[in-house]
Design brief:
It contains 16 helices and four strands. The protein has 339 residues and is mostly helical. It has two domains: 141 residues, no CATH class; 167 residues, no CATH class. The strands form two sheets. It has a two-stranded antiparallel sheet. A two-stranded antiparallel sheet has the order 3-4. A hairpin with a 7-residue loop joins strand 3 and strand 4. The radius of gyration is 28 Å and the shape is elongated.
């Protein structure tokens, strides 16, 4: 009896893992399609280097709701892509508004860039590269770092206050100043990562709800099926040996044994899990897989109140994420990660 509950846990964990991987895949596709990571980075750089836009608005909205509207669909804070390598010397910091400093920084790092719809695709800027680019910009200014600080102050750049504090802390030593800028930018990237994780959390929340409803995955019904149907449970957990044979024999003894066993083994249990989705897939014993539209069945199942507690269970499970369910699956099966 204990093995049945272990198989139940394994079947539920495996189904939640697959659905969580689907949610993660959809989220990654959404992020890559709309270049969200790159927009987060360059929106932060515009706020930090050049300040707000002409309307006085931040390029990187503080509220997650605003981020959904601004970064994916509204303004694009990324500089235009430039395929030319960076010039041998950094240009002088212009005494103008707009995106002057952001474009000057992009000029120093564009060797690692490749175009994406005419914009830069750089989504990660190492702190060491940022500090070196800043030192290159300071080298062209009369007076070096102090000349750069004066220019930033005249431009009313938010970067002035940060660099001024680092410069004073470094006691006007260039090497310590470069290390201080690198440490400061690294901490800023960690703060930006926290905001990005908040954004991703809400995206995963929405995608998890959509996946649960589109596949109408009733976790309670699925668990009951695993407990009552021994052959189904065996096919889910890939049980081998005489016990699996006895379970299949008991299921097919009242029907044509060959046809019943062939149908059972040719229909993967994890495919049957999605039979009630709005679009289902069947894998016959011979021939190619086929896709079926189940709009009517899906809607009847979706609007049946008795399934709603199971949908809620599945939805809450998906919020834990694929890494959590993979760790649980690894612990149950005894799979050890490679070192």
């Amino acid at each position: 009896m204990l093995s049945a509950y272990v198989d139940l846990a394994l079947g539920l964990v495996l189904s939640f893992l697959l659905l969580s991987l689907l949610v993660s895949g959809l989220n990654e596709a959404f992020v890559r399609l709309l270049s969200i990571r790159s927009k987060f980075l360059w929106a932060y750089l515009r706020d930090t280097l050049d300040g707000a836009d002409d309307r006085g608005r931040s390029w990187l909205p503080a509220r997650v709701r605003d981020v959904f509207a601004a970064l994916p669909f509204a303004r694009d804070p990324r500089p235009a892509h430039d395929s030319r390598p960076a010039p041998s010397e950094a240009g002088e910091v212009p005494a103008s508004d707009g995106a002057a400093l952001t474009n000057l920084l992009y000029e120093r790092v564009r060797e690692i860039d490749h175009p994406k719809r005419g914009r830069t695709s750089i989504a990660d800027l190492p702190p060491g590269r940022f500090s070196v680019a800043l030192m290159e910009m300071a080298a062209r200014e009369p007076g070096g770092v102090e000349g750069l600080l004066e220019k930033l102050k005249a431009m009313r750049s938010p970067l002035y206050g940060h660099l001024k504090g680092v410069w004073e802390t470094a006691q006007r030593d260039l090497d310590r100043f470069r290390q201080g800028v690198e440490s400061w930018f690294d901490s800023e990237m960690q703060r930006l990562s926290m905001l990005y994780k908040r954004y991703v959390k809400w995206v995963v929340t929405v995608l998890g709800l959509l996946v649960t409803l589109l596949f109408t995955m009733d976790g309670l019904e699925y668990g009951k099926t695993l407990l009552r149907d021994n052959a189904f449970r065996a096919s889910v957990t890939a049980v081998s040996g005489p016990e699996a044979y006895q379970e299949l024999k008991a299921r097919c003894e009242q029907a044509d044994p060959v046809g019943c066993i062939t149908d059972t083994l040719s229909q993967p249990a994890l495919v049957k899990l999605f039979d009630h989705a709005i679009v289902s897939v069947s894998i016959p014993a011979e021939g190619d897989p086929s896709v079926h539209w189940n709009g009517g069945v899906w809607w009847d199942r979706l609007t049946t109140p008795s399934h709603w507690p199971g949908y809620l269970l599945t939805y809450v499970a998906l919020l834990f994420g694929a890494p959590f369910w993979w760790d649980v699956f690894r612990r149950i099966t005894g799979i050890r990660p490679r070192r």
